[in-house]
Each structure stands twice: as structure tokens, then as C-alpha cells.
Amino acid sequence: MSGATAESATAEPPIFWLPKKCADMNNGSKGRAKPMRADRMLPLFALSPEPLRKKAVEAWCLWRKRRVSANKTPRALIFFITHRCNLRCSHCFFWREINQGVTELTLDEIRKIARSMRHPLSLSLTGGEPFLRSDIPDILDAFNEGCGMHEAAVATNGVLTERIDQTVSDILKRRYLSSFGVQVSIDGTEATHDAIRQVPGTFQKAMKTIAALAELTKQDSRLSVHAGVAVQKRNLSELEAVVETLLPFRIPIRFNIVRGGSFGVFGLPRSAAVDHDPADHDNTFLTVAEIREAYRRLIRLNDTAPYRFWSERQRRIWELSLAMLESRRPVFPCYASRMESVLYAQGDVAFCELSRSFANIRDFGLDMAALWASDAARTMRPLISKCFCIHGCNLTTGLTFDSKTVESVLLERAQRHLGKQEPDT
Fold first, then answer.
1. What CATH number has the domain bearing residue 108?
2. Which residues contact 331 (CB under 8 A, 6 or more apart)?
């Protein structure tokens, strides 16, 4: 598995949106509004007095919150483009659905779905192993032409090195992309990683993929590559060794707390929940005390490393996750039912990976806007209005409305923009 092992590789939710009249009319996006990356405003933001920065960020976050209810379709889409996988990871929450022979959405169907989107979106491709599909570049084209998507990411187990390298090289020919991220899973030292993935040789293949993609980042700054570590009981003692192994590549590292339907989610009614637990969850899920200690270790490692491999945003996700696990209270509202959606390979749609599917897009003529406004969607939204979880993808969206986090992330980017630290994760 790739994305379903812990977190999907998340395309960063846009912070600033240009009005439609300012959209780039030549990027193949049919004149849809194109997000303006915060980097373009970093010098002015960084030089502003602190009180002015805080007020500006607070006003911006409040304005965005007020616009949430106006969404006609998702602003962030996690798309399981296939349920096929070439591994059988012990911590995979999606193991029951893997390799069950579902009829996957075709490229023509995906094009129709993309055209039904009413807003540009951030697109995260996952699976299964996404690179078992040969049409990833065409899928990206479909969403760019259909709704102006120009930020995307993909999660992979990294086994298919040559195919991944060739596909990403092809993707980077798409000039409409402002950013493309690839997460490669590394879940411990070689022996531990291969034991978790249950196929010998996967560690070496994943490391070869990281090396190949790291070279591509030197040729195209739009490409970001990071390692994704699914933190669990089997590799808890190896965090330092994993960091030491990856530091020579000077790539960001994401440490994802393995969660499931019975761990890390609160207030979700049984009628709305889905059984997404690893098969061997007793030997996978960490205790809160273990997560707290891992957090302290990662802070120390990050502070003493030759570059900051763990970003402020990722650190904040752990901080908030611990707060929820310890207090069993939400840290901020969840925006999943108003901002996000999960599209599975056979067309099933959910608001998040922890809640059940409530409709199939094929039953709505492949029209996401119609599905989004349907009775099924309206029935589901209240059921998940009070739940909260430690899922990094949903927390990432929530953090874009949190003024403290937005300010700190923008200041962190300002330092990077001035050449003071490594790329964000």
C-alpha cells in the first residue's frame, strides 16, 4: 500500500485565491480562478510589523471561514485511483478492499467528474499503489482542463522505480502545474520496512526511487519529494535510524501516526463510521505515552539535524493530535463535509476516509456538484458534524483556517525564501 498505509500525500491546500478576472487564461484551465502561492507575498509579509501580520492573518482566516458554506464541490479531493496493490502492508487500514477486482473509474469517466467540479481544487492521488495505473498524467490533465487544478500530490510505496521516474518526468512537462509532490513510504530500517511491507527487497527499491526523484527536484523546483513514515509499534525504536538514513537526500520527512477506525477518531456515530483498522492493530497502534515520547524525540532530532526535515506544519499536526488524544476534545472544527471529499476507485464517495461512503458518483451521472447537493450528502453531513480525529489530511485543511498556524507557516516559508532553510513538508 501507499497512501492507505497512514496518510495520503496531501497537495497543500491553497491559502490565497486570485479573483477570476486575474486567472491565468493560458494555462489550460478555462479561465478558472488560479491560486496564488503565498511565496509571492513573502517578502512583504515577513517585513510587516508583528501586530499587523497577526491582524492580517486573522482577517484572512475569518474571511475564508465565511466562504466555506458557498462551496458547490470539494476544494480538496483524495482520489483512490486504484484499489490494486503490489504489497500487503501490515498497518494498512484499507486491506479489506485491496485487490478485490472493483471496476475502476475510466479516464473518460474521470474527465466527466473533473468537468463537474465548480472550483479549482488540491488533488491527492492514492490507492492501492497509484503507479499501477499508467494514466496518471492524463488524470492530472483531466482535472486541470476540467476545473483548473494545478497543485497535486501522489503517495507511493516506491517499488516501481523506473515507472515512477518516467511518469514523474512526464508529469513535469505539464507547465500548468505549479507544484507536484511525491510521498515515498519508508517505514524503518531495511529489515523492519520489508517485514512491514511483507515483500523482500521493497526497502532498497523505495530508496532507489527516492534517489531518482531527488535528482529530478534539482531540475524542476515545482517537484517536491518527501519520505512518509507510518509510525507504529514495529518501528518506534528506529526513528533515529530512519532519519539518519534519509538525511543525505536532504528531503523533508513526514512522520504519520498510524490511526484507524478504533484509534484516533472521536464522536463519529457508528452509523457513519467505517471499519478501517489494520488487520493487526494490537501490534500497530501506539499508546498516547508512546506518541508523546516519539514527539519529543522528533523535536530533538529536528533541532540537531543539518537541515529542518520536519516542518512547522507537520510538527503542529502532532501537537494537535496529542491534544485530542489526551483531552478527547476537538481542537478546531472539522471542515471535511464542506471542503473535502474522498473518491474511491469504483466511484464511491465519502467526506473523509474515516466515515462511510454515502453515494456512488456513477449514480449521479458522474456529476460531483449534483452528488454534493444531494439528499444523501445532506443526510450525511450532520452525522459527522461533531466528530474529530488525528487524520493528517483533514488536520492539514483545518490548519489553513488556524491563524496561529498560518502565520507560523508563512514565516517559515519566508525563511526558506531567503535561503535560510530547506523546503517545507
1. 3.20.20.70
2. 320, 323, 324, 388, 398
pLDDT at 78 over 80: yes
Tell me whether residue 408 is in a domain.
no
303 occurs within a structural domain? yes
Which H/E stretch holds residue 327? helix 312-327
Residue 409 has which C-alpha cell?
507557516
pLDDT tens-digit map of 50-71: 888 888 888 888 887 888 888 9
Confidence of residue 174 (pLDDT cuts 50, 70, 90): very high
| Distance (Å, whole) CA 230 – CA 210 | 16
Q: At 179, which amino acid appears?
A: S
Which of 146, 147, 226 is closest to 180 using CA atoms?
A: 226
Alpha-carbon distance of 112 to 101, in angstroms, equals 23
For residues 207-221, b (16+ Cβ closer than 10 Å) or e, as one string?
bbbbebbbebbeeee
What proportion of the chain, given as a percentage, has pLDDT over 70? 88
pLDDT for 49 equals 87
Give the type of residue at 33: A
Domain tally for the chain?
Answer: 1
Phi, psi at residue 265, to the nearest 5°?
-130, 135
Query: Residue 328 contacts by C-beta under 8 Å, 6 or more apart in sequence?
Result: 266
List 255's β-bridge partners, or say none: 229
Domain assignment present for 336? yes
Place of cell 479549482: 120
Q: How far is CA 394 from CA 166, 283, 325, in A?
A: 31, 25, 16
> What's the pLDDT band for 10 if we cut at 50, 70, 90?
low
In a domain, 48, yes or no: no
pLDDT at 29: 40
Q: Which of 261, 279, 277, 273 is nearest to 357 (CA)?
A: 273
Place of cell 516506491: 158
Could you say which DSSP state residue 120 is in?
A: -
Between 305 and 15, name the one with better pLDDT.
305
Cell of 370: 449534483
Q: Quick one: which of 191, 181, 122 has its CA closest to 156?
A: 181
Task: Determine the structural domain holding residue 77 and report its residue range.
Answer: 3-15+73-400
More confident position, 12 or 209: 209
Residue 176 vs residues 37, 141, 179, 181, 283: alpha-carbon distances, Å: 14, 9, 9, 14, 44
pLDDT in tens, 288-333: 999 999 999 999 999 999 999 999 889 999 999 999 999 999 998 8
Whole-model pTM: value is 0.86
d(CA 246, CA 226): 10
